[in-house]
């Protein structure tokens, strides 16, 4: 998208007690309006047909085939995400959707809890390491916090083998601000 040095700003002030939002738009220099370039239905069909490719690969193929240069890679990524949801989305509730998707794939769910919501599964890497007679000398837990908009934390129980981490199990745990450290520790 073309950028303009118009000294434009948007200031939004929200008063939560009154449920009022104040919007101030400042635009000092007049310039041509940026072109609104939409992604055509043909491009969306191409994305659907190639949904198993990465968005950057789809974009590269589209560019090679003469894609309008005003269409950006972010637009392709957006439609790739939108059009690909049917591969994994089973319900509107992300937690329930994950459970159904994991069951369909016959993953080994070892914990399914409703309060707080928790879901744990075991990967097949432990079995592979044992088959290869690889001894695990060190294990650890890694975690991500506040990385999604569903209020879920992700924990990974992993083995370290020759400096490389191998995920053995995953735990998705709801953190709705009522999940204290005692609850978190007991679930882990």
Q: Which blocks of ≥5 consecutive residues have pLDDT under 50?
A: none
* Fraction in beta strands: 25-35%
Q: What count of helical segments does DSSP give?
A: 6
Shape: extended
Question: Can you put this structure into words, describing what you see?
Answer:
With 188 residues, the protein is of the alpha+beta class. It has two domains: 9-86, no CATH class; 94-187, no CATH class. It is 29% helix and 29% strand. It is built from six helices and seven strands, in the order E-E-H-H-H-H-E-E-H-E-E-E-H. The chain has a five-stranded antiparallel beta sheet, covered by helices on one side. A two-stranded antiparallel sheet has the order 1-2. Helix 2 crosses helix 3. 9% of the residues are buried. The mean pLDDT is 86.
Task: Pick out its properties.
single chain, alpha+beta, 2 domains, two-stranded antiparallel ribbon, 6 helices, 7 strands
State the gist of this model.
This protein has 188 residues and is an alpha+beta fold. It has helices spanning 41-49, 55-64, 73-83, 94-104, 125-131, 181-187; strands spanning 9-15, 20-26, 108-114, 117-122, 138-144, 152-161, 164-174. The protein folds into 2 domains: 9-86, no CATH class; 94-187, no CATH class.
Question: Mind sketching the topology for me?
Answer:
Layout: E1 9-15, E2 20-26, H1 41-49, H2 55-64, H3 73-83, H4 94-104, E3 108-114, E4 117-122, H5 125-131, E5 138-144, E6 152-161, E7 164-174, H6 181-187
Antiparallel strand pairs: 1-2, 3-4, 4-7, 5-6, 6-7
Helix pairs in contact: 2-3
